[in-house]
Design a protein that fits this description.
This protein has 206 residues and is an alpha/beta fold. The protein is 35% helix and 22% strand. It has one domain (2-36, 45-202): Nucleotidyltransferase, domain 5. The protein contains 7 helices and 5 strands.
Length: 206
């Protein structure tokens, strides 16, 4: 916990950006009957009956101090999908960074071995050398600022029924573009000194 909190209070450095990553999912739901549009005195009416169209996986990547985020919608979230997101992050969005300080939970797909399953050893090693990984503790996923951004995404963009992946990708892309244009940052206030007081029960008694 203290390691992650220390990372969050480092000064902004574009050569060593702090990136938070998290994953979630969204059930794709289609309508059995077309909703009745709203009109004066009546809200839109949506039938309770619906049809399931599978689940879309969400990869959220956010740089809190720069107000930037990237969201990828995929069919799966295996080790190879995670490795591909890492490669795209390093080679496209942060190609000029010396090393990325990556904060994420310790899901079994979130490790260097996933890079070796997806790419040739030389390529996997090249990518791994540009990562400085900081894991949130078990039961401490609230320390990952990407969770905050996922909550905003779901509230502003994914709260309604979405029938298929292309529609979801289009809506999420528009949300991402708008939010990035506003450079919405996350102001993290919780410090190590706060943790040692408010979470004193988690520390050993010496």
């Amino acid at each position: 916990m203290e390691d992650v909190l220390d990372v969050y209070h480092l000064p902004y450095d574009p050569d060593y950006p702090v990136i938070c990553m998290d994953e979630s999912c969204k059930q794709m739901i289609g309508e059995v009957r077309n909703p009745i549009p709203c009109k004066s005195g009546h809200p839109v009416r949506i039938d309770d009956e619906y049809v399931r169209h599978g689940v879309a996986e969400i990869f959220m990547e956010v740089e809190p101090l720069a107000g930037k985020r990237h969201v990828a919608i995929t069919e799966h979230r295996t080790k190879k999908e995670w490795a591909l997101q890492i490669k795209q992050m390093l080679d496209e969005r942060y190609k000029n960074a010396i090393q990325v300080r990556l904060v994420m939970d310790n899901l079994n797909t979130h490790n260097i071995s996933s890079l070796y399953e997806a790419f040739e050893p030389a390529e996997a090693r090249r990518l791994a050398k540009r990562l400085d990984i900081h894991y949130t503790p078990k039961h401490g996923s609230w320390l990952n600022m990407a969770e905050i951004e996922l909550s905003v995404l779901k509230g502003q963009c994914l709260s309604g029924r979405i029938p298929d992946m292309p529609t979801m990708q289009t809506q999420v892309s528009a949300w991402e573009k708008e939010r990035n244009s506003c450079m919405k940052k996350i102001s993290w206030q919780f410090k190590t000194s706060d943790a040692r007081i408010k979470l004193k029960r988690l520390y050993p008694n010496l």
